[in-house]
Write a structure and sequence with these properties.
With about 250 residues, this protein is of the alpha/beta class. Helices cover about 20% and strands about 25% of the residues. It has a single domain, classed as CNF1/YfiH-like putative cysteine hydrolases (4-Layer Sandwich). This is Purine nucleoside phosphorylase.
Length: about 250
């Protein structure tokens, strides 16, 4: 885990992992090697738990207070009110106002997004594949944050690694479906086929709403340090977490 981490304003911490091993943390065996944080791909549950604990610790949270989701490539958002051991089912985004909870999103080509409004005390994570971009999961998450008191102009976001438009060749029908909703996703793949740049679409949607956006990481398919389902098929997932720190008394 080559950790990237930072703050989305006061009280909000974020971190992204990659797939590289960490000293002192047991590694997953092939094909999940070495720092898989997904619990749905067939990896050893104890290894996954150790990796999640280490990632949660990077944002100052104990592992049992990390909350994940079970994405279905839609646009539903789950509001988290307390720690829970099981993933929030059938959502592609999570939002909370509760301090001391780490929200987790995992990916291996799809776009992971971490968001926060420190003034409102609201944080969120998004998992955005092509269906999520087409159904505006990023916009749904922004709406959920606003419902909890966030202001789009105060929201800060970091968009993590994903497959790039040069590597993501798609059928014409899928290209047309996504680009009709998110024109900034339009790309040409390296082989001259229709391509989709989902990260560009996510960034454009966020900035169009007024959010401040930074990017972390590159193309998952091009980097051996990242998991890529398109490249490897049976593989693990890297992850991103965000947490809201308690107010100082």
């Amino acid at each position: 885990m080559t950790l990237a981490q930072g703050h989305l304003g006061p009280r909000i911490r974020w971190a992204f992992s990659d797939r590289l091993a960490v000293d002192g943390v047991p590694s997953s065996a092939p094909p999940y090697d070495a720092f898989n944080v997904a619990d749905h791909v067939g990896d050893d549950p104890d290894r996954v738990r150790a990796h999640r604990d280490a990632l949660a610790a990077a944002v100052g949270v104990e592992g049992h207070r990390l909350v994940s989701m079970a994405p279905v490539h839609g646009n539903d958002v789950g509001e988290v009110g307390a720690p829970q051991p099981e993933p929030v089912p059938e959502v592609d985004a999570l939002v909370t106002r509760v301090p001391g909870i780490a929200l987790l999103t995992v990916a291996a080509d799809c776009v992971p997004v971490l968001l926060g409004d420190s003034d409102a005390g609201v944080v969120a994570v998004v998992h955005a594949g092509w269906r999520g971009i087409a159904s505006d999961v990023v916009g749904s998450t922004l709406t959920s944050m606003v419902d909890l008191g966030a202001d789009p102009a105060r929201i800060r976001a970091v968009v993590g690694p994903a497959v790039c438009g040069l590597c993501y060749d798609v059928p014409r029908e899928r290209y047309d479906q996504v680009v009709a909703i998110a024109p900034s996703a339009a790309s040409v793949a390296r082989d001259g086929a229709y391509g989709l740049d989902l990260r560009a679409a996510a960034v454009d949607r966020l900035r169009g709403a007024g959010a401040h956006v930074t990017l972390h990481g590159g193309c998952t398919q091009e980097s051996d340090a990242l998991y890529s389902f398109r490249r490897d098929r049976l593989t693990g997932r890297h992850g991103g977490v965000v947490s809201l720190e308690p107010e100082q008394s």
